[in-house]
Amino acid sequence: MEKTDLADFINFSENPIDNISWNNEMRNEYNKNGILSLKNFLTEDSIGMLQEESISKIKYAYFNPKKHNVYLKPNDNSFPKDHPRNINVLSSKGCITDDIISKQSPLRIVYNSLIFKNFISFITGQKKLFPYEDKLSSINIHYTRKGEELGWHFDNSSFAITLMINDVSIGGEFEYTSQIRGEKILKTKEYQNVFNVLNDNFSTKITSMKAGGLLLFNGKNSMHRVTKVKCNETRVLAVLAYNNQPGVSLSNSAQMTFYGKTDN
Ligand SMILES: O=C(O)CCC(=O)C(=O)O
Ligand SMILES: [Fe+2]
User: Fold this and answer.
1) Nearest by Cα to 255 from 144, 158, 133
2) If pLDDT is split at 50, 70 and 90, which confidence band does 133 have?
3) Does the chain have fewer CB atoms within 10 Å around its N or its C terminus?
């Protein structure tokens, strides 16, 4: 797709993602903070289309409130139940899968566009980006209604891209820590950090994104959550997921956990 057509969906005047010096600036910011927040990334027209599409499709969303540890892995029984490795938090938001999202959706146009992929590759340092092989996982729309939340966790992937479709006025905030695990951090220190975050005893930051905003986030080593929505509006947000090699599918068990179905 040419830039002139993509400009119907991406607000290039505020976010010139094809401009080398602007991209360099954004990359420095991402490398420094592990997070890049771009306001008004989508055009007003695409926000309107996405709000309409997401409202009409909430009936297909899979809500499966469940407890999980912050590592999103089965508990490790070599640790006690109340050890930070095994402490449970609750996630209750729901989502719809890629196969439900329209072929003409602005999300898909952005996701598939070379200009956008080149921008994300440049910022994250990935050579090439590929969609998921399975039919469910590349683009998802998440819904968080009153009283729902996404519990503290580390992501499995090295970066995540989110686009806000509908922001809410009370709660539903994205809260995150600095990089609190990784090769340079001792495991005992990491567990102490996790314990402190879970006990509200750790310094965190909050970003409040408005509709149309993009967040690029390195959540592999930084704990994050979405706080409980405390108003009658529904927080709606798209997650765009890529892999750095072709042919990768989300496992059937993960598909069942997140989507309540598999694509095969
Ligand atoms: O909803 C958000 O803002 C964050 C989503 C998230 O952390 C995830 O899907 O892993
Ligand atoms: Fe996450």
Assistant:
1) 133
2) very high
3) C
